[in-house]
Design goal:
Strand content: 5-15%
Radius of gyration: 21 Å
Helix content: 40-55%
CATH architecture of the largest domain: Alpha-Beta Barrel
Oligomer: single chain
Number of helices: 13
Distance between the termini: 51 Å
Largest sheet: 8 strands, parallel
CATH class of the largest domain: Alpha Beta
Low-confidence stretches: 1-35
Mean pLDDT: 90
CATH superfamily of the largest domain: Glycosidases
Length: about 375
């Protein structure tokens, strides 16, 4: 009798993940069982709280209503500039805030957000920026270590603003820094430089058996970011585009005519380029099938921890249709999901301070089949 061939653990995980994707129904719970890891899902992002000195938390009543609605996960940014100093009051605020969310029944993704001085450092001195990120996690890992590993997930760096090779090296160093104090916490990471779903294809997993790869999805930007008002992008001048859509959609034709009449060829080119193929559920489904294939191939669970539609000048039906299409494509490919975000421009409730003003159509698009 010959001995069976030796199979590496990562190869075994890849085979198991492929079998899961091919044969098993999607669990309703947040705990998606891919490659042996628990992957939190059915969530939303909550910026504007622990990432700012003057940020504010949701009320207990709002959190209870969100939990009762079916949401299970909250993704929270922390500001690397604020954390790096090791200010005890800042760290206590972060730990207490996360502890309250866990006590309310939520899983929490805690992600390092590059802002202020850190953004400037990545632009002017990437090596110094890398050291700042490591310093921030060296401080913050003490907080994470005291929080339950089954509920709290550190995410290494949001939208790593560097070239892929530099990020892969820094990613391993951050992981080692966290592992020194947090041996059981699942580490979350995304590909450089925008964490886009298209960037995962050429990115290998971490050299770690307890990890989740995380991507963002906002395609097509001309639809999801129309009327954006925080920079001079041509997206600020695009409005009232529907989903689904093609170049022959009457609403699209009218909007392109308005842009041409205004002499805005930059905005026209953006819309036409993104409509080189129609915006449809099938197009979205293919993107997530590719993501599912990457997960199965590498034996690494995946999550979509940002997707959303800016609610400035889009019709409610199109907005909900896109959100439902993305969420269903994620579900179909065993991709966990966390919506961007709760109550600001992309949000689905009016205010974190009130139980009134919940958008029923958006919540249904996220949580109902």
């Amino acid at each position: 009798m010959t001995s069976p061939p030796k199979v590496s653990r990562r190869h075994a995980l890849a085979l198991a993940a492929g079998a899961v994707l091919a044969t098993s129904p999607l669990p309703r719970s947040a705990a998606l069982a891919t490659a042996g890891a628990r992957v939190p899902s059915r969530g939303f992002n909550l910026p504007g709280w622990l990432d700012r000195d003057d940020g504010f938390a949701p009320t207990r009543a709002t959190l209870e209503k969100l939990r009762q609605s079916g949401f299970e996960t909250i993704r929270l940014p922390v500001n690397g500039d604020l954390v790096s100093s090791g200010d005890p009051a800042t760290l206590r605020r972060i730990q207490n805030g996360i502890g309250d969310l866990v006590a309310s029944g939520f899983s929490v993704l805690l992600y390092m957000h590059p802002s202020g001085e850190l953004v400037a450092a990545f632009r002017n001195d990437p090596e110094a920026a890398a050291e700042q990120v490591l310093q921030a996690w060296t401080v913050l890992r003490v907080v994470v270590a005291d929080l339950p590993a089954q509920s709290v997930y550190p995410e290494l760096l949001n939208e790593p603003p560097m070239e892929r090779s530099a990020w892969l090296a820094l990613r391993e160093r951050i992981a080692a820094t966290l592992r020194a104090s947090c041996p059981r916490h699942t580490l979350v990471w995304g590909p450089a430089r925008f964490q886009g779903i298209w960037e995962i294809a050429g990115t290998p997993p971490l050299a770690d058996d307890n990890q989740i790869a995380a991507v963002h999805y906002y395609a097509p930007m001309a639809f999801t970011h129309q009327c954006k008002n925080w920079d001079a992008s041509p997206l600020a001048r695009i409005a009232n585009l529907p989903f689904p859509a093609s170049k022959d959609t009457a609403t699209v034709i009218r909007q392109l005519s308005k842009l041409r009449a205004a002499g805005d060829e930059e905005a026209v080119r953006l819309v036409e380029d993104e409509l080189s193929a129609p915006w449809t559920e099938a197009r979205i489904a293919q993107d997530f099938a590719d993501l599912g294939y990457w997960s199965a191939t590498h034996g690494c669970p995946v999550m979509l921890n940002e997707f959303g539609v800016l609610n400035f000048c889009v019709d409610a039906e199109s907005r909900a249709s896109w959100v439902r299409a993305v969420r269903k494509a994620a579900d179909a490919n065993h991709v966990a999901w966390i919506y961007w975000e709760l109550d600001q421009g992309f949000g689905f409730i009016r205010s974190r301070q009130s139980v009134e003003g919940f958008d029923g159509s958006m919540i249904a698009a996220l949580l109902e089949n």
